[in-house]
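Quick one:
INPUT:
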């Protein structure tokens, strides 16, 4: 009788171990899996920053800080996909030499060397200064199919790109002034963009 009891206890113990060990193993594996909130956005993960560009340097501030940093038009354009009026914006007829960076993050986007007068009333460029910093997104708003352009690091709405620009690219990047900050050639070095001086004949 005692032997049967011992055997019964042993069988029950083995059954308990078999039932619980796999469950513990699954829990351990789940703890090791990284949370989705830590994953980098696909566009940023796949992007290769241009030479000399430090990805950690171009960071989008928190929402509350953005509201303090940006004026009404800048916030409306970059954060709410808005469009400023033509011919009544800061850079549509700016002819100074320099570069244009994202108003939110400071990431370099366009250069005056690629800017031209499209007659539209918005700043127009035939190519980005740093193609990796300007992301194309399909836009089907307002019953149209267009290509929206957004900045890589700040995810700011910049404008749209069209296939009616000058050669050799044939592109027209139609950009909102409110999404940009202009840095004149003379300020490139002190603003941390000295690597672009060569676009304008070296040191100024």
């Amino acid at each position: 009788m005692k032997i049967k009891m011992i055997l019964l206890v042993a069988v029950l113990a083995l059954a308990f171990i078999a039932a619980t060990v796999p469950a513990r193993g699954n829990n351990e594996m789940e703890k090791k899996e990284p949370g989705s909130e830590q994953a980098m956005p696909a566009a940023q993960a796949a992007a290769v920053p241009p030479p000399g560009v430090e990805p950690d340097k171009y960071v989008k501030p928190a929402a509350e800080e953005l509201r303090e940093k940006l004026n009404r038009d800048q916030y409306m354009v970059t954060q709410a996909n808005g469009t400023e009026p033509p011919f009544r914006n800061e850079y549509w007829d700016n002819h100074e030499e320099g570069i244009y960076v994202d108003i939110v993050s400071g990431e370099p986007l366009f250069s005056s060397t690629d800017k031209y007068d499209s007659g539209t009333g918005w700043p127009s460029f035939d190519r980005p200064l740093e193609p990796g910093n300007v992301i194309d997104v399909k836009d089907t708003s307002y019953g149209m199919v267009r290509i929206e352009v957004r900045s890589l690091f700040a995810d700011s709405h910049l404008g749209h790109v069209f296939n009616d620009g000058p050669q050799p690219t044939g592109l027209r990047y139609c950009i909102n002034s409110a999404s940009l900050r202009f840095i004149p050639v003379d300020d490139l070095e002190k603003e941390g963009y000295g690597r672009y001086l060569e676009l304008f004949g070296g040191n100024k």
